[in-house]
Amino acid sequence: MLLVPTFFTMALAGIWHGAGSQFLIFGLLHAAYLSINHAWRIFRHKRGVKPDPHAQPALWAVAVTYLSVLVGAVFFRASSTGSALTLLGGMLGLHGSGVSPEFVAAFAAGGQTLRTQMLWPLTYLAWLAALYAIVWGLPNTQQIMRRTDPALGRILPARWPAVEWRPNWHWAVVGGATALVAILAIGGTSEFLYFQF
């Protein structure tokens, strides 16, 4: 009952973002994700499994959701379906490691330039680790604003209750400082997302 309208709506949403087949695939992927989610909820309900409103999501569920959205994002940002498939193949290691035997030999021989070139991936990995720590460790906006009922349904409490918003001078200072940084960061021009759509 839900499959046809879900696929139709998400296919239209995909095409609305762009005229290429990669956008249609992006929409259809998300329709499949939503349909699987609905089927999973129905299956659990029929088996009598009641979700615990205070339970943290299972690690496998977070990983599957993350990887699914990642695959969809590849199609969304790719210039064509072929380039999206090539990128996905590269992410799976189907095109080799990209490290030539000559590079390994020069690195082993003590090439200082090559060692310097090897540092930039480590810098990116350090940034990724820091950003993942922020995303997975800090509360989201719904958890911060939990006391004001910002959304329908359950909102998992933050790990640190001290970060939940309260109408006090601490949060006034944080809000003011954030607004000041945002105002000072305004500058330059950026192209509208759907410019010349």
Task: Walk me through this protein's architecture.
This protein is an all-alpha fold. It has two domains: 1-94, no CATH class; 116-188, no CATH class. The protein is built from eight helices and no strands. It has helices spanning 3-17, 21-46, 59-77, 81-91, 101-108, 112-137, 141-144, 169-184. The longest helix is centred in the first third of the chain and has 26 residues, at 21-46. 8% of the residues are buried. The model has no long low-confidence stretch (mean pLDDT 82).
Quick take:
The chain has 197 residues and is mostly helical. Helix content is 63%, strand content 0%.
Task: Please identify the structural class as seen in this structure.
Answer: mainly alpha
Largest sheet: none
Order of helices and strands: HHHHHHHH
Radius of gyration: 23 Å
Distance from N terminus to C terminus (CA atoms, Å) equals 33 Å
Domain count, please report it: 2
Q: What value does the average pLDDT take?
A: 82
Q: What is the 3D shape?
A: extended
Low-pLDDT sequence parts: none
Number of strands: 0
Q: Residue share in helices?
A: 55-70%
- Count of helical regions: 8
Our estimate of the beta-strand percent is: under 5%
Fold topology:
Layout: H1 3-17, H2 21-46, H3 59-77, H4 81-91, H5 101-108, H6 112-137, H7 141-144, H8 169-184
Helix pairs in contact: 1-2, 2-3, 3-4
Core attributes:
single chain, 197 residues, mainly alpha, 2 domains, extended
